[in-house]
């Protein structure tokens, strides 16, 4: 059995010509000067007073029935003015009309020159209409009718055109007063004008004809191809994995299931159909497609709607780069050929829905086997490459890009899998749209479960396709995507998927501080046993990497769910305690150190103190007895003992101040808070009491690591009690080396370079930077001591 790409390619070849039974659009034309006998020049947009004058000089429009011409307002209620009583002036109008004819001919699938002959002016005032009918041939060679709606204000009056089993409803109203809407359709099409509900609709009617004397053009008949397309897409849609027992998708393909044939199991998740004409991103839209592209889009739009498939229009972009080879006789020839592709990015972006509204989906990757027909890959291969000649140790390289518009299809039941495969930048915005649609449906009391069911299916697919690599998970967390997904799952009420996501992704290292609010909200609603298990998994998986975030999670969750405090939260607390750093944090594989923050101290003490108290009360409820365990006490000992990790000025003092000002989860009255405060007060008092004296002479402390000749000279200068400055005349490399060593040792020196003479001179002048720094530290210590001793004075 041929795969779906081959079947669609064969069907598309059956489309022998572009076009459809109707054409419609909007023109920013130069409106004509319209003169009407008995009224004069008509202002555009049409004025109500002139609409009344036109009705006065017009006649009731008749209709034909067999050989008879009748006037019956039950069948047709409108007014007409014959072309002989009209004058259309303006060269630009005629030029615009001539330019429109080829476009209409292409949209109708007509070859050869098409001309337009003015037939009449129709005035549809309020209540006017025309029931379904066919136009008769009004002149030799006439095959179609063109309706042009001049600028006028009205409502209602939609044009319905039917051909065989198809029907379109065209709204020809335009808000722009300079815009002229048009619609053309074959004469054998049945059509009707719905009643005008307000205002007045002013329409110029043209007969479209050819003078070549050949057979009259007929509407393109694509019904058989359209039906076959619908059938193939319906088969595809039934193999999309929506129902139970239909197998599972693997990568871009399916594996065989009990309801899918072996051939169908290999059909791709989505299809990408590149278009023929060139389009820019700015002009991309279903209504702006040309020729065969427009025909193909119209057929696929109908077939997709009938087969439960999604259809989008997007820009297809391919970027390739790699190394190239010289193909001339010497290496100086300018002729190269592509050697090997090192990097290839294939993606779809700039999405448009069939109604031409934009979608917030990001770039979606596609694979070669998803192209239809498959030979379109050759167009990408044939794209012109840009070569870059060898530089240094790098050989000749190349880059090439290919871009075109494409129609993109996938079964609606596989939408979640397709979007999830595209990555979080694609799937999460779509999930947000579905949630908004779900809320709108609930607000309107629509009672439709479709947006909610689709959102849940997409959420499950996102969870299954969440990035597996550690660095990708951390990146998703830092971008807030993990938190966004957690909040979406919580809003959906999808407890099972949320538990799976937390256990498989968040607890496995893809976690950050911004994930805490949705985690606390969700875990706070779970039964204690389940919340305890997930909390323990979260802390175990992340405490070594981000202890601060874990401590805050534990503290906030215990505040939200007090029944967790005690034995249920003890395993997580013990894990956090063991993970508290006792050595200076080393950079992780992202290049960033572990996060040690004042909040780590306050949140850890708050959480562990709560657990201590709960366990102590459970063992002996007598308030006078201390708790039986001392997790918080052990944590405080680590903080106060390992000052190289928990720097007092950066970590511990700010933590104590946060407790005093109520900006920390730890209560100021808690015993741990009092002990932390006492330790910091003692340290500050000791430093405030230490004397600070300005330098007695020009000696300046320094610990120079380098012992080269110039650095030894620098050391002797720093140790001299009488020398205030030192001049080093040396080459640039030497001056830069000495400058770097001065910076590493934080010497009390001002530096400048004298450019007079060669080589230049580095001038080093001693200052009192260390003394000034000590004074600033003394002032900060005094302020902090005052704040800790008198918090209400802040």
Would you count the extended β strands for me? Answer: 30
The neighbouring-strand order within the major sheet is 1-16-12-19-10-8-4
Largest sheet: 7 strands, antiparallel
Q: What structural class do helix, strand and pairing data support?
A: alpha+beta
CA-to-CA gap between the ends?
A: 81 Å
Which geometry do the CA atoms define?
A: elongated
Low-pLDDT residue spans: 241-261, 589-593
How many domains, as an integer? 4
- Approximately how much beta-strand content do the residues carry? 15-25%
Report mean pLDDT, rounded to a whole number. Answer: 85
Q: Rounded to an integer, what's the Rg over CA atoms?
A: 39 Å
Helical stretch count? 23
Residues in helices, as a percent range: 25-40%
